[in-house]
Write a structure and sequence with these properties.
Two copies of one chain form a homodimer. In chain A, a hairpin with a 2-residue loop joins β1 and β2. Chain A contains 14 helices and two strands. Chain A has 295 residues and is mainly α. The longest helix of chain A has 28 residues. Chain A is globular, with a radius of gyration of 18 Å. Chains A and B meet through α2, α6, α7, α8 and α9 of A and α2, α6, α7, α8 and α9 of B.
């Protein structure tokens, strides 16, 4: 656990600098937008997705600067999704990472626009020559991110999640929902290293399988924190799912079995990385970390 | 005028089919998202931006199917921006193209997500091999679209526009605002044909200059319609700018001089196309059309 924590915080620091350097700044009349984009993205978060990009890129000895740009792009997409999901029209959250959400700090309009601009910026970064000399690789990254983040991925998952409040979901439906809402972007984070490294299909597939199990384990752990953690620990309001009568892994499986399921998924995730042998030790540790974390 | 109108409606029909084929469909639990995306994009609009893509692509004998894909991608971005701008938190509009806006027909959350998914889809289309065989061209398209649509383009312009309600703007500031908010995407529509056709820099530059003047002329004509048209003619609420005390070309220049300015810009736009000789006749006609239209 200690090794993962220090690897995570080391990655977070490097990513923070990259985010900073890629964000717009300046004193244009519309500078409020730039400020909101910075507020939404800097100075917080576990940076799990960026970490996964860096760790998977290392498997293929990918140029570190390239990996950092992709890590930043994915984090921008993750942050945009949080900004929009927190809006009053959606999950209506006031706190995030221990501080007011973007629409509480600024206003709803600025939050919508900051999210839009962050999403756009992510694609701009991926398509830029600085990300990889081969334009075919860059196109592949754009395609994979768009697929993970769009109507058949994250945005579709958020729509499903909103509608799910008035649906009876079984475990299969909840799994599908989470796979769309959080799993696909996590899968892209793990696959991005393989795309950058032009990795052969079986290795790429192994990383996707790992990411799939990791993403679900992560989500179940999140649900457990929402059910059992305190606002001070987690940095956002807890107990919301139960209050909204929302079907989650916990409501369907119960706390005990949900925890078992998360552990099982974490172990399963690790097995997919056999092909990489010792090289993937850090990714294996992360799988255990996500189910054991307390925030 | 007749020639432009029939060229516009011919292009609109072809684009409609392309939009249709690229939009998600099906009966997933999150199908409401797909429906809202279709509602937001199909069956309406002048399709000016798609038309500009097709007309500029024709200057370079570009493959028609490629041009149609780009035209669709730009229209998706345009439509996403309308969906978000119409939200209660932004311009709070109930009608668009003669029917309820997306958040009125569905709800605010669905409108936010439909916009997000349309933006994402646009980038997915551009990066796809079907758009152009050369990945370098595809990356260039992604980069140019992201620049035109992001914090230093359309989204920045919308932020500026919202803030402008409490600012005194002179003609230079209004011009800059409109250049960001609508001009950059129109410029990309005109430039896209040149990118697809790998056109030499001077021709590309000429198209950008044309688009710049055209975009401003278009915006002034829009302001005039808002000031003088009826809701039945225009398909959305009119007189909003004056009611909000918003600085527009009309409020600063007056109706008479604004109309003169639009005419001047349309004539100027045409001059930039001299290089193309007869081949650009249709684009020249469009410049006149945008300042003479009544809706």
């Amino acid at each position: 656990m200690k090794r993962v924590k220090s690897a995570l915080s080391e990655a977070a620091e490097r990513v923070e600098n990259t985010l900073e350097s890629l964000l717009p700044a300046g004193d244009a009349p519309e500078a409020r937008l730039f400020e909101a984009m910075r507020y939404a993205t800097l100075g917080g978060g576990k940076r799990l997705r960026p970490f996964l990009v860096l760790a998977s890129a290392e498997l293929f000895n990918v140029n570190r600067a390239s990996a950092l740009r992709i890590a930043a792009a994915i984090e921008f997409v993750h942050c945009y999704s949080l900004v929009h999901d927190d809006l009053p029209a959606m999950d209506d959250d006031d706190m995030r990472r221990g501080r007011p959400t973007v629409h509480r700090q600024y206003d709803d309009a600025t939050a919508v626009l900051a999210g839009d601009a962050l999403l756009t910026l992510a694609f701009e970064i991926l398509a830029d020559e600085a990300t990889h000399p081969d334009p075919k690789v860059r196109c592949e990254l754009v395609t994979a991110l768009a697929a993970a983040a769009g109507a058949h991925g994250m945005v579709g998952g958020q729509m499903f999640d909103l509608l799910a409040e008035s649906m009876e979901l079984d475990i299969g439906a909840i799994t599908r929902l989470q796979r769309l809402k959080t799993g696909q972007l996590i899968a892209f984070a793990c696959e991005a290293g393989a795309i950058l490294g032009k990795a052969p299909a079986p290795l790429r597939q192994a990383l996707r399988a790992y990411a799939h199990d990791l993403g679900l384990a992560f989500q179940i752990a999140d649900d457990l924190l929402d059910a059992e953690g305190t606002e001070a620990e987690v940095g956002k309001k807890v107990g919301k799912d139960a209050a909204a009568g929302k079907a989650t892994f916990i409501s369907v499986l119960g706390t005990e079995r949900a925890r078992e399921q998360a552990d099982l998924l974490a172990r399963q995730a690790v097995l997919h990385l056999d092909l990489f042998e010792k090289k993937a030790d850090l990714l294996c540790d992360v799988a255990r970390f996500v189910v054991e974390r307390r925030a």
